[in-house]
Structure formats: C-alpha cells, structure tokens
Amino acid sequence: MGEHKHSRQREIIRQLLYGRTDHPTADQLYEEAKVIYPSISMGTIYRNLAYLSEIGEIQRIPHPGGADRYDSRPDPHFHFVCTSCGGLQDVGVLSVDDTEAILSIRDSFEGGQISGFTVIYSGLCCNCLRKR
Ligand SMILES: [Zn+2]
Ligand SMILES: [Zn+2]
User: Fold this and answer.
1) What is the Å distance from ligand 2's center to 107 Cα?
2) On the CB side of 7, how many CA atoms lie within 13 Å of its CA?
C-alpha cells in the first residue's frame, strides 16, 4: 500500500491546486483535501507541497503578511498583494527577455548562487478599491 498511498495523496494535492489563481495556503489545501481524503494529515500536505515545489511543478510564494501561498503556475511571474484584504494574485506576464534581464544580476553576485527571484507588488485590489 505504501508507495501507492503516497502517490495518491500527491495526486490529490496536485488536483486541488491545478489551474487555480487564488494561491491558497497549506491550511486551506488541508481543509479541502480532508473532504476528499478524510485521513490525510497536515504533515502529508506540507511534505507534498515541499516536494512539488522542489521538483518545480508548483511554486511556494512567501506572503509578506502571513503564511506561504502555493501557486499552480511553475513559470516565473510577478505577484500582487492587497494591503487591505491580503489577497495575492498574479500580475502581468514575464517574457523570456524580462526573466533573463532580472536574472542577469546574478553575474554581479559574487560568492553565492542565485537560482530564482520573488517580486511582490503591493496596493489595493479592485474589490477593496471599489469599497472605498
Ligand atoms: Zn483587497
Ligand atoms: Zn502566481
């Protein structure tokens, strides 16, 4: 059962994230996974999210005001955080040239190795702006 159970749990997490743009937290994914797979544990969720991020299938996005968010999009892109509701969403599309330009800074970074970047814009989302 062991390996089969593991791949099934991973598949559930994959499916829960697939195609989403709301960048859920691990807690949120846990609540949703429990509905489908009542015996799933928080540790399993964390382990699989870490694994999927590590192999580059998903991305872990640090939220400046709270828990990490998980992104079904593995390609490099920018994010926007609403300072009022805390919502995190994708903003814009990066071309290969943009990505290369951003990463070209690694040539002037001595003594270490840059493998990625996180850019988070902040402001008010359209829902919060409308409420003002
Ligand atoms: Zn907002
Ligand atoms: Zn994203």
Assistant:
1) 26
2) 3
Domain borders along the chain are 1-72, 75-132
Q: What is the mean pLDDT of residues 26-50?
A: 95
Fold of the domain built from segment(s) 1-72 = Arc Repressor Mutant, subunit A (1.10.10)
Give dist(CA 40, CA 5) in Å, integer: 10
Point out the ligand nearest to the CA of residue 71.
2
Instruction: Tell which residue, 77, 73, 121, 74, has the closest CA to residue 96.
Output: 77
- The superfamily (CATH) of domain 75-132 is Ferric-uptake regulator, C-terminal dimerisarion domain (3.30.1490.190)
For residue 80, the ligand closest to its alpha carbon is 2
Per residue in 64-103, pLDDT (tens digit) is 888 999 999 988 888 999 999 999 999 877 788 888 888 8
Separation of CA 103 and ligand 1 centre (Å): 30
Asked whether residue 33 carries a pLDDT value surpassing 70, the answer given is yes
Instruction: Say what the pLDDT of residue 94 is.
Output: 77
Reduced to 3 states, what is the DSSP secondary structure of residue 30?
helix
Q: What is the mean pLDDT of residues 3-7?
A: 75
